[in-house]
Design a protein that fits this description.
Peroxisomal Thiolase, Chain A, domain 1, 2 domains, five-stranded mixed beta sheet, 11 helices, binds acetyl coenzyme *A
Length: 327
């Protein structure tokens, strides 16, 4: 038994914020951002009441419709996010109620940019084990209210955007279809190279004054690790599936930086026309980047029946992973 992706959907809020718009809030320029990251604009929510589960809701409906399922058919929701509706409970619980699913399993995954691949790995195992049949994975982020939009936070704030992507997984007994491999990894040696310390089990006023409730990053260290670990994980995934880079029809890397993805594709030997980039329009939507990439590529005809798609991600933790999926 394998887990097959039978539906996908995505949603981004309407408000578009350009690099020049950010330049009015902090000392940055369109040229700096585009040159280093490839980002031209991102979408942000425009009301504090809009949470990650609200962005996931239309994406989930779109994915269920493509899979020809109703909310009542969903057996489990796995929600990957670093910007949840609340510190607890998980956003999967909020989405379960908003969608109108039954009293099913609802789990949040907190693995940041690798969150979607960790969620895929869990869903794959649940389906193979026969635990659940119809699983909805959501990756959704509302970064806007959690970014330091001043000079202090400019190195991080310019990178992110809000958005959501969902996929539906269902069992198939076709041996050559579905999630062929999905490997996930971590090394806590990098935990403080990219982190947001608060909210934690203790919160002191001086920590807030120091801005520890905003994400902080050693960009150069993250870059170095990402360009090493993403190709490594991708080659491991290909090897385990007995496939080669030439078998890959489409490569959907996590969208943290276009330069990272170009380097990773180059190291793997994936031709540029098989690489999905949407960072120009959305920035880094963290757990949502890969499912947005799947949903857009499927609708644009880049993913077809039988397409072999390689995905890889790297992010905070450090965590990383790669999956090979045949549609
Ligand atoms: N606008 C203008 N100047 C800036 C900005 C900004 N937004 N941010 C920083 N600078 C300045 C710095 O202060 C520095 O100035 P200095 O030379 O006077 O000291 C200069 O620009 C260069 O800064 P660097 O940090 O050296 O720039 P770098 O070339 O490393 O690029 C970047 C920074 C784009 C962040 C890059 O390091 C990167 O992409 N790293 C990986 C990011 C990533 O993958 N994050 C993971 C995803 S997040 C997650 O998992 C949750």
């Amino acid at each position: 038994m394998r887990a097959r992706i039978t539906g996908s959907g995505h949603y981004v809020p309407n408000k578009v914020v350009t690099n020049d718009d950010l330049g009015k809030l902090m000392s940055t320029t369109d040229e700096w951002i585009q040159q280093r990251t490839g980002i031209k604009e991102r979408h942000f929510v425009d009301a504090e009441s809009v949470q990650a589960s609200d962005l996931a809701l239309p994406a989930a409906k779109m994915a269920l419709e493509q899979a020809k399922l109703e909310p009542k058919d969903v057996d489990a929701i796995i929600f990957a996010t670093l910007s949840p509706d609340a510190h607890f409970p998980g956003s999967a619980c909020f989405l379960q109620t908003k969608l109108g699913c039954g009293q099913i399993a609802a789990l949040d995954v907190r693995n940041q940019c690798s969150g979607f691949l960790y969620a895929l790995s869990i869903a794959d195992a649940w389906i193979r084990a026969g635990t659940f049949r119809n699983i909805l994975i959501a990756g959704a982020e509302v970064h806007y209210f959690g970014l330091d939009m001043t000079d202090r936070g400019r190195d991080v704030a310019v990178l992110f955007g809000d958005g959501a992507g969902c996929v539906v997984l269902q069992p198939t007994d076709d041996d050559d279809r579905g999630v062929l491999t999905c490997g996930v990894h971590a090394d806590g040696v990098g935990a403080k190279e990219l982190w947001m310390e608060l909210p934690a089990s203790r919160i002191r006023a001086d920590q807030v004054a120091e801005g520890q409730h905003y994400p902080r990053m050693n960009g150069k260290a993250v870059f170095r690790w990402a360009v090493e670990k993403m190709p490594e994980a991708a080659l491991t995934a290909l090897g385990k599936a007995g496939k080669k880079v030439e078998d890959v029809d489409l490569f959907i890397p996590h969208q943290a930086n276009m330069r990272i993805n170009q380097l990773v594709a180059e190291r793997l030997g994936v031709p540029a026309d098989r690489v999905v980039h949407n960072i120009q329009r959305y920035g880094n939507t963290t757990a949502a980047t890969i499912p947005i990439g799947i949903s857009e590529s499927w609708r644009e005809g880049k993913i077809k029946e039988g397409s072999t798609v390689l995905m890889t991600a790297f992010g905070a933790g450090f965590t990383w992973g790669a999956a090979l999926v045949r549609f």
